[in-house]
Amino acid sequence: MSSNSRLKIMLALLFLLPLASGARGADTGAARSGELYQLSPPGTFQKIPAPPVYKPMPAQPAPSPTPTLPVNRGALNPKTGEFYPSHGEGVINPKTGEFYPPSGSGYLNPRTGEFYPGREPGGSMEKKAP
């Protein structure tokens, strides 16, 4: 071997030697942070970390037994039998998209003047005091 190739090999070894001693998992005897299990020097024991403490989840509130129904449940067209679902304070015609505002115990079609009775319990649109 030539002296030039020996010099290259020596330089390569000198360069790689510090990398090999600091390699991950190397048995240096010093504990590193973040690594749970490392090799210990001969004749010593390694302390195994304790398992995490069990923390139970807080109790979740039980759902209400009956769902809360909106005050305004909709209206029924007495001529056609169509149901108009509630939308905000009034009802909406699903076919045309028209909004009918509340009027007395039902809803009024402002375009035609037709009255549609409400479907609330007790037949009244007025909110009852608790």
Characterize the structure shown.
With 130 residues, the chain is of the alpha+beta class. It has a domain at 75-119. It has one helix and eight strands. It has one helix at 3-21, and strands at 75-76, 83-84, 86-87, 90-92, 99-100, 102-103, 106-108, 115-117. The chain has a three-stranded antiparallel sheet, with no helix packed on it. Strand 1 (75-76) and strand 2 (83-84) form a beta hairpin. The model is unreliable at 122-130 (pLDDT under 50).
List keywords for this structure.
130 residues; alpha+beta; 3-stranded antiparallel sheet; 1 helix; 8 strands; 15% helix; disordered C terminus
Instruction: Quote the beta fraction.
Output: 5-15%
Low-confidence stretches: 122-130
Strand order of the largest sheet: 3-4-5
Largest sheet: 3 strands, antiparallel
Q: Per the principal axes of the C-alpha atoms, what is the gross shape? A: elongated
- Count every helix, treating DSSP H or I runs of 4 or more residues as helices: 1
What's the mean pLDDT score?
Answer: 74
| Rg on CA atoms, Å | 40 Å
**Helix percentage range:** 10-25%
Q: State the end-to-end CA separation.
A: 102 Å
Number of strands: 8
The ordered string of helix (H) and strand (E) elements is HEEEEEEEE
Structural class: alpha+beta
